[in-house]
From TrEMBL, chain A:
Entry binding sites for L-aspartate: 83, 176, 230
Signal peptide: none
Protein name from the UniProt record: Aspartate carbamoyltransferase
Species this protein is from: Streptomyces angustmyceticus
Domain annotation Aspartate/ornithine carbamoyltransferase Asp/Orn-binding: ranges: 163-309
Record text on subunit structure and interactions: Heterododecamer (2C3:3R2) of six catalytic PyrB chains organized as two trimers (C3), and six regulatory PyrI chains organized as three dimers (R2).
EC number: 2.1.3.2
Pfam families found in the cross-reference section: OTCace (PF00185), OTCace_N (PF02729)
Broad class of enzyme this protein falls into: transferase
InterPro entries listed in its UniProt record: Asp/Orn_carbamoyltranf_P-bd, Asp/Orn_carbamoylTrfase, Asp/Orn_carbamoylTrfase_sf, Asp_carbamoyltransf, Asp_carbamoyltransf_Asp/Orn-bd
Family to which this protein belongs: Belongs to the aspartate/ornithine carbamoyltransferase superfamily. ATCase family.
Keyword list, A-Z: Pyrimidine biosynthesis, Transferase
Summary of the function given for this chain in its UniProt record: Catalyzes the condensation of carbamoyl phosphate and aspartate to form carbamoyl aspartate and inorganic phosphate, the committed step in the de novo pyrimidine nucleotide biosynthesis pathway.
Reactions accelerated catalytically: carbamoyl phosphate + L-aspartate = N-carbamoyl-L-aspartate + phosphate + H(+)
Length: 325, 428
């Protein structure tokens, strides 16, 4: 694996499968009475959040603490960091403090890449979401959720998603989740279809390793998993689509549409869900919908990524098992 | 000693000749000219060009003297072989009155490295609402003939029409920064394959092309002259070609960086590549070269845009747009146009001196290298190869995309009205 995790495109098929397999091991820790491994004891991880995201930060924090890392949360928001230089300043402060890894969330696409490549800091950088660019751990947890559901936790070990048909629906243009998922799912052998109104598909998408369709109903019967992307109501004012009602009618997932999906197919959502526009309550609450699992899987995936970037090459559970004896 | 003999220079790339300068003028051009009483510059097969003229420079003074001043900018210009630069109006305060343009003009004269011809703003404060006092700027000591809201587009069609009409009274020209503002809201880079992947806001080619199309039609309708700044797309080339074939009085410029660099560079997220208009695709680059070669694009202009280090050493979205260009322009043109066989050195003289001087009505510049003409000259060692080292720049800012790149050619001497401003690559 590379030293940093900036983009899902950085991962080879074997890297990705290794992370998913390691996450399965990590998931077992959650079933124990004491949900903690000593793996990163004495290491310091900084969660550097230039953009609010309580969910993602808590998920990383839980992962770090389960691996016994010391955690620093740095939330920089508002006008104090509106000047561009603050990223560099902050990086150099963290470098001086001897931080062992930086988890960064930033509203600017490419900020984690700059952090990792500009010589401002030496520690491994994990991208926790940058602008409309990438959110690789989200894609990994989504793939992990799909593999568990479509193949099974144990049967899935060592497996990729070859031949699975995955559909992503909604605001692809502004979605780092979509970009990361297209890259990773393609690497894992899946066939990806993006469904959105043409206004929410980026110019240049033709180079992506996926299909694009404007017709959700045509795609649903051929989907093993359907991932609904968040659509912000503000997009309506920027004329990306005429009305919320029209959007729901054409691209929303309701019970009737869900019934057109194959019996085994799952419904996914990166959360937080806004019930109504892109997904109805009926679908959100159905047992096909994996939103809650995705949250739990997020912790396992982030443990796996931290472990592999910071820990080492042995199986993650070797040490704890030895210690248990 | 007021006489200088430049010996054995290939004038405009032709056979070696001697050029004798006496005072501010060229006294003779020929072979075997006497060196008596003259200081001799051994040119030894170097290329002698008329002093270069840049129709598009940002000198930042007044207001952003931390980026550049008239002094540092004109020293950079002399280093790059320029004897005249047109200074864009987007300073603080904006160059929209006779007072500001005269100040900039006088600073250029005082420092003496390069003539500075101020460009006046088209509209008050570059706000696009109300015409600035174009006539007063023209009648000032600065004698402004080029007007531009560069940095911003004159997007209101009526204001643009009026400006085009109004400057006819004194032979002025409106230089348009073609950028449809609504289509480029949040724009960070060229819209296309790379922006889709990087998740950076797209600056679509059509935002440039639609304004150019509108403006050439306006120029035709009112019988005026329009100049298109930093044309950057293959589609823009097509529109300008069509307009010229129709007899519309349009001229266009391309920057050195748009002749060499593509949006693939943005994959580094290094803001040194952040520029407006953005770096485009390989296809655009090739179309621009071809258009410069066939004359569809009239001139090369640098869009020299200095920024202090801290405005570039940050994340892409927070970074300022622009790159410096005066000191590398000729090398990039040699690399992309001469070494590729697209232009001769005589063509370079046209695209970088004769034509820009003509478009901007810069008296005394862009003149033939012949007896009786003002001795504004540039000597180029075209055989030189070396890496660009920004540490040696005269510009106050170092935001060059070429750091560490090998580029051909080096300006060794620049003469402004017979006085050397650059000698053996060092500022005089
Ligand atoms: Zn401009």
């Amino acid at each position: 694996m590379k030293r940093h995790l900036i983009s899902a495109a950085d991962l080879t098929r074997d890297d990705a499968v290794l992370i998913l397999d390691t996450a399965e091991e990590m998931a077992r820790v959650a079933d124990r009475p004491i949900k903690k491994l000593p793996t990163l004891r004495g290491r310091t991880v900084c969660n550097l959040f230039f953009e609010d995201s309580t969910r993602t930060r808590i998920s990383f924090e839980a992962a770090e603490k389960r691996l016994s890392a010391d955690v620093i949360n740095f939330a920089a928001k508002g006008s104090s960091v509106s000047k561009g230089e603050s990223l560099k300043d902050t990086a150099q402060t963290l470098e001086a403090m001897g931080v062992d890894a930086v988890v960064i969330r930033h509203s600017a696409s490419g900020a984690p890449y700059r952090l990792a490549t500009s010589g401002w800091i030496d520690a491994p950088v994990i991208n926790a979401g940058d602008g409309t660019h990438q959110h690789p751990t989200q894609a990994l947890l989504d793939a992990f959720t799909m593999r568990r559901r479509l193949i099974g936790p144990d049967a899935g070990l060592g497996q990729d998603l070859a031949g699975r048909r995955i559909t992503l629906v909604g605001d692809v243009l502004h979605s780092r989740v979509a970009r990361s998922n297209v890259d990773l799912l393609h690497t894992l052998g899946a066939e990806v279809t993006l469904v959105a109104p043409p206004t929410l598909v980026p110019v240049g998408v033709e180079n992506w390793p996926c299909e694009v369709s404007y017709d959700l109903d045509a795609v649903l019967p051929k989907s093993d998993a359907v991932m609904m992307l968040r659509v912000q109501r503000e997009r309506m004012n920027a004329a990306f689509f005429p009305t919320e009602r029209e959007y729901s009618r054409r691209y929303g997932l309701d019970g009737e549409r869900m019934a057109r999906m194959p019996g085994h197919a799952l419904v996914m959502h990166p959360g937080p869900m806004v019930r109504g526009m892109e997904i109805t309550a009926e679908v959100a609450d159905s047992d096909r919908c994996t939103v809650v699992e995705q949250v739990a899987n997020g912790v396992s995936i982030r443990m796996a990524v931290l472990y592999l970037l910071l820990g080492g090459n042995e199986p993650a559970l070797t040490h704890p098992r030895t210690e248990e004896k | 000693m007021s006489k200088i003999l430049i010996r054995g220079a290939r004038v405009l790339g032709g056979e070696p000749q001697d050029v004798l300068i006496d005072g501010e003028f060229i006294e003779a051009v020929g072979t075997g000219l006497s060196a008596e009483g003259a200081e001799v510059v051994e040119a030894d097969g170097k290329i002698l060009l008329p002093g270069l003229v840049d129709l598009h420079t940002h000198l930042r003074e007044p207001g952003r003297e931390d980026s550049e001043t008239v002094l540092t900018g004109t020293r950079a210009a002399a280093s790059g072989g320029y004897t005249a630069v047109f200074a864009m109006a987007n300073t603080f305060p904006v160059a929209d009155t006779a007072g500001v343009v005269e100040q900039v003009y006088r600073l250029g004269k005082e420092h003496g490295y390069c003539d500075v011809q101020p460009i006046g703003a088209v509209t008050v404060g570059l706000e696009g609402k109300k015409l600035a006092e174009l006539g007063a700027m023209h009648e000032s000591a600065a004698g402004v003939t080029v007007f531009s809201d560069d940095g911003k587009c004159v997007d209101d069609a009526v204001i643009m029409r009026r400006a085009l009409e109004y400057v006819k009274a004194f032979g002025g020209v409106v230089a348009q920064h073609a950028q449809e503002p609504r289509l480029t809201e949040g724009a960070q880079m060229n819209e296309g394959v790379v922006s889709a992947e990087l998740g950076l806001g797209g600056w679509p080619a059509v935002a440039e092309e639609s304004i150019i199309a509108r403006d050439v039609l306006l120029a035709e309708h009112v019988g005026s002259r329009v100049h298109i700044c930093h044309l950057s797309t293959a589609g823009s080339v097509e529109i300008v070609r069509w307009a010229k074939s129709r007899g519309i009085d349009v001229t266009a410029e391309v920057t050195p960086h748009h002749l060499l660099l593509t949006d693939e560079m943005v994959r580094s997220y290094n803001p040194v590549y952040k520029v407006n208009p953005p770096l485009r695709t390989e296809r655009d680059v090739l179309a621009l070269r071809e258009a410069l070669a066939d004359g569809t694009i009239d001139i090369v202009a640098t869009d020299h845009a200095p920024h202090p280090h801290e405005d570039k050493d940050c994340e892409w979205a927070a970074a300022a747009m622009g790159m410096v260009g005066l000191e590398t322009a000729l090398s990039v043109v040699q690399r992309t146009m001469v070494d590729t066989g697209l232009l001769t050195w005589a063509d370079v003289a046209d695209r970088m001196s004769f034509a820009p001087a003509r478009i901007g009505s810069a008296a005394g510049h862009g003149r033939p290298v012949s007896a009786g003409e003002p001795a504004n000259l540039t000597l180029v060692d075209s055989a030189y190869r070396g890496e660009v080292d920004p540490a040696g720049f005269a510009s106050r800012s170092r935001n060059t995309p070429y750091e560490g790149r090998e580029l051909p050619g080096r300006v060794t001497h620049t003469f402004l009205r017979g006085r050397a401003t650059l000698v053996d690559g060092k500022l005089a």
